[in-house]
Automatic annotation (TrEMBL):
Protein name: Glycosyltransferase involved in cell wall biosynthesis
Domain Glycosyltransferase subfamily 4-like N-terminal positions: 39-146
PANTHER family: GLYCOSYLTRANSFERASE WBBK-RELATED
UniProt key word Protein biosynthesis: no
Length: 328
C-alpha cells in the first residue's frame, strides 16, 4: 500500500536532480512520486497524493514542494525535507543578491517540516548552528553512490592533467586552484569547466584552461583523460562529483568541508585544510600526481552500504519513525 509521497525534480543535470533520479529509481512500492514535465500534472499529482499519503518527502526547494508541505501541514500530515543546499548561505558566499521569495520559501520549509535531512552529518551540524530552531528535528541522509562501470572507449589518461568543475563561482574557489597551478611546472595542466561570471578576471597562464559548461557524459570523458580531480570549495554539503571522478579513474584532492569525506578513508595528502592556501594546494597537487590515491580510495569504498538502495531504506525508516511518533 502506498504510504509516502516523494516530491523532487529530476529534470536537468543539477546535483539535486541527479540525486533525485537515483532515489526515484530505488523507491519501494510504499512510495509514489510527483514528477512530470507537464506542470499541471505535477501539481495535481502532488495535491492528490498529499491527501492519500501519511508522509510527504520534499527533496530540494521548489514551489510544488512548498505547496505540498503547506497542504500537508493543514491536513496534519508528517513532512520531511531533504536539504541539498541552503539558498541563504550560498547567496552570501557567492556575493549574489538574494531573492526575497526564495529566502521566505526556504525559511517556511525549515520552520514547518517535521524532519530536516541535510545530505551529510557535518552539513547537518552547520544547519543546526545557523538555524537553532532546527535542533531536535534534524538528522542526515547521505546522497547515494552507485558503482557504475563507465566505458572508457580507449580514452588515454594524460600525464599531469588536472580537472576542476564549478566555473568561477566564489564558493567553488577554483581561482585559488588556478593560482596554485601557476606555481607548478608547465607540464601540469589545469582545466576548469563550468559557467564563468567574470571571464575578464580569470588568471592567465599557459598551463591553465577555462572552458564552459559541458554535458555530464562529456565531463566523464574529460575526467577519464585526467590524472587528478580537485574540489576546493569553501562550502560543500556533499559533493557527488568526487565519486564521479573516482569512478572515472582520477585521483582526488578534496576540501575538508565536503560531506563526501564521511564516506572516504582519506589521509593527510588527500584533503585541503585551507582552501585559500595556494602553497598547500600546489604541494598536494604535485604529491598526488606522483602518488595517485584512486586505487586506495576505491578499494576502501563499500558500494553496497552507500548505494541509493540503502539510502532509500534509511529514508523509509525515517518515514516509519515519524508515523510511529504521530501514533504515540
Amino acid at each position: 500500500m502506498i504510504e509516502y509521497l516523494f516530491v523532487g525534480g529530476t529534470d536537468g543535470n543539477t546535483g539535486p536532480a541527479n540525486v533525485n533520479k537515483g532515489i526515484v529509481a530505488n523507491l519501494t512500492a510504499k512510495f509514489c512520486i510527483s514528477d512530470s514535465k507537464n506542470k499541471f500534472v505535477k501539481y495535481l499529482s502532488a495535491i492528490i497524493n498529499t491527501f492519500r499519503c501519511k508522509v510527504i518527502i520534499v527533496s530540494g526547494m521548489s514551489k510544488v514542494g512548498l505547496y505540498a508541505i503547506q497542504l500537508a501541514k493543514f491536513l496534519n500530515k508528517k513532512t520531511i525535507y531533504i536539504m541539498h543546499g541552503c539558498y541563504e548561505i550560498e547567496s552570501g558566499l557567492n556575493d549574489a543578491d538574494a531573492d526575497l521569495r526564495s529566502l521566505q520559501m526556504e525559511q517556511y520549509i525549515l520552520h514547518n517540516v517535521d524532519l530536516v535531512l541535510p545530505v551529510s552529518k557535518r552539513y547537518g551540524e552547520m544547519i543546526q548552528e545557523k538555524y537553532p530552531f532546527c535542533k531536535g528535528k534534524t538528522a542526515y541522509l547521505h546522497n547515494g553512490v552507485d558503482k557504475v562501470d563507465l566505458i572508457h572507449n580507449g580514452i588515454k589518461r594524460e600525464k599531469g592533467r588536472v580537472v576542476a568543475v564549478g566555473g568561477d563561482r566564489k564558493l567553488k574557489n577554483n581561482i585559488t586552484i588556478a593560482k596554485a597551478m601557476a606555481k607548478l611546472d608547465g607540464n601540469k595542466v589545469l582545466t576548469v569547466y563550468g559557467h564563468f561570471y567574470h571571464p575578464d578576471d580569470l588568471p592567465k597562464s599557459d598551463n591553465i584552461e577555462f572552458k564552459g559548461l559541458i554535458p555530464q557524459e562529456q565531463l566523464y570523458k574529460e575526467m577519464m583523460r585526467s590524472e587528478l580531480y580537485v574540489l576546493n570549495s569553501i562550502y560543500e554539503p556533499f559533493a557527488l562529483s568526487v565519486f564521479d571522478a573516482l569512478l572515472c579513474g582520477c585521483s582526488i584532492l578534496v576540501t575538508n568541508v565536503a560531506g563526501a569525506l564521511e564516506l572516504l578513508d582519506v589521509t593527510e595528502h588527500d584533503v585541503i585544510h585551507d582552501p585559500i592556501d595556494e602553497n598547500e594546494i600546489a604541494e598536494k597537487i604535485d604529491y598526488l600526481l606522483q602518488n595517485p590515491n584512486n586505487a586506495r580510495l576505491m578499494k576502501n569504498l563499500d558500494f553496497e552500504k552507500i548505494s541509493y538502495k540503502e539510502e532509500v531504506k534509511k529514508l523509509e525508516n525515517f518515514c516509519k519513525e515519524l508515523c510511529q511518533k504521530s501514533r504515540s
